[in-house]
Design brief:
By secondary structure, this protein is of the alpha/beta class. Helices cover 48% and strands 9% of the residues. The strands form three sheets. A four-stranded mixed β-sheet has the order 1-2-3-4, sandwiched between helices.
């Protein structure tokens, strides 16, 4: 039997069929992930809060599932807050470290493999910028992602401070544990909860007491420094209206006074040993202003900006570097004032800043770890490690325990007070996470000018 279909009906049928096919395609395209869309930072952060290693689906050829699992186990066994992300080479780099750290919200060390490039950043309470730079450079030439990440993680966990975040042990999933067992375990945890909380509070209280004791020990030395600088201002006997005084002299004098007031204010507000760094940095800035003022009044060339005398920062800005060998240590060049340079040249001992210790008066570099922030304000940045190599204070400052208690190691003694693995949210030093990605050293060659400069 033949069925007659009009031209209009046939056309309508084709139109309906075309619309149906088009609708199906739209639905399929909407439901399928777009290949060109990068995984959001929030998605990566959410994954890292549950597991130390994240491998983007678009970068699965870089690190296999078995390699990722082995790497995650290595980090978890070390109980360190190390977060590793493996991303495709076209992933947006702008502010990636800062954004990922903010989204994850956990204090730690963040390492990213981006195609063939690799880089890392860390909260200063976990690992110093110098240590991060050295660790990254030590593996940067390794092309294989598995080998590179394994070597980096192995070296990092032995140097960094803090503990793994508790969220790594709280991921959901079928563990094969019966409901009855979970209920029993829960009852035990509830019963012991009060005791565990008491232990945590006791440990935290003891830690705070140790911090206060360290600060009070340090306060004596810092107050001596502030007093000495105030006496320098008095001996200067400069009057802004005196004959021969010009605007440059008055500006130097005002800066000296301002830094003196800042030092007193910072010390009055200090609540932790690492807060002292701002005090001694202000004193160093003030002494340099007075050195410039003295040069102007005596019609001498203005001094170049140099660190203070290593043996006692109260001696003022250094004038040169001189070779010095500590007892039982290796020789190194240290910045010295004119008087100590003459003493060393004559074979005499320099005039050393001594502080009170349990063993009596000792040079500050042989005292306790609380003096690290004090020295960091005077000699912060890259100079401090070389000065303190082989000394008691230098060995203390290189340890993860020092980083957890007094900030981050050489030259960076700040931090928000969170230890590795703590959920600190957006409360972190963004300078620790900014900078370029990969492509060389941390200097101007690959990072946009200066350490951690430029944009990522």
């Amino acid at each position: 039997m033949k069925v007659a279909i009009s031209t209009r009906s046939f056309a309508g049928l084709l139109t309906a069929l075309a619309l149906a096919v088009l609708t199906a395609l739209v639905v399929l395209m909407a439901g399928a992930p777009r290949a060109e869309a990068a995984t959001s930072v929030s998605t990566i952060a959410e994954a890292l809060r549950e597991d130390p290693v994240y491998v983007d689906p678009a970068a699965s050829d870089q690190l296999s599932e078995s390699e990722a699992d082995a790497l995650a186990k290595q980090i978890e066994d070390a109980d360190k807050p190390l977060f590793v992300a493996v991303l495709p080479d076209d992933y947006p780099k702008q502010d990636l470290f800062t954004d990922l750290r903010t989204a994850t919200g956990v204090t730690g060390l963040y390492a990213i493999r981006l195609g063939d490039e690799f880089d890392a950043r860390a909260d200063s309470a976990v690992l110093s910028q110098t240590a991060v730079r050295n660790l990254v450079n030590s593996v940067r030439g390794e092309g294989d992602a598995g080998t590179q990440l394994d070597d980096f993680s192995d070296r990092a966990v032995t140097n960094m401070g803090g503990s793994a975040p508790s969220s790594w042990g709280s991921a959901d999933g079928d563990t094969g544990v019966s409901t009855a067992a979970l209920i029993t375990a829960g009852a035990v945890l509830v019963a012991g909860g009060t005791g565990a909380y008491a232990i945590v509070r006791r440990n935290r209280r003891r830690h705070e007491e140790e911090q206060r004791a360290a600060l009070e020990k340090l306060r004596v030395v810092v107050d001596e420094d502030i007093t000495a600088f105030g006496e320098e201002l008095d001996r200067l006997d400069f009057h802004p209206g005196e004959p021969g005084a010009d605007d440059a002299m008055r500006a130097d004098y005002e800066r000296g006074l301002d830094e003196y007031e800042k030092a007193k204010k910072f010390m009055a507000e200090a609540g932790r040993p690492e807060d002292v760094r701002a005090v001694t940095q202000a004193l160093d800035d003030g002494r340099f202003s007075l050195a410039r003022l003295a040069a102007r009044r005596e019609a001498r060339p203005l001094p170049e900006r140099r660190p203070p005398c290593f043996f006692d920062p109260r001696h003022g800005p250094s004038v040169a570097d001189a070779t010095w060998t500590p007892p039982g240590g290796e020789s190194r060049d240290v910045p010295v004032c004119a008087a100590d340079r003459t003493r060393l040249a004559d074979g005499r001992d320099p005039v050393v800043r001594e502080v009170d210790t349990e063993q009596g008066r000792r040079p500050y570099w042989e005292a306790g770890p609380a003096y690290g922030p004090w020295a960091g304000g005077y000699f912060g940045g890259g100079i401090l490690p070389g000065l303190l190599i082989g000394t008691l204070l230098g060995s203390m400052m290189a340890s993860p325990a020092y980083a957890a208690d007094y900030g981050s190691g050489y030259g960076d003694f700040g931090g928000a007070g969170y230890e590795g693995g703590d959920v600190s949210g957006a409360d972190f030093q963004t300078d620790d996470f900014t900078g370029g990605f990969g492509g060389g050293d941390y200097g101007g060659g690959g990072f946009g000018g200066g350490d951690f400069g430029g944009g990522f």
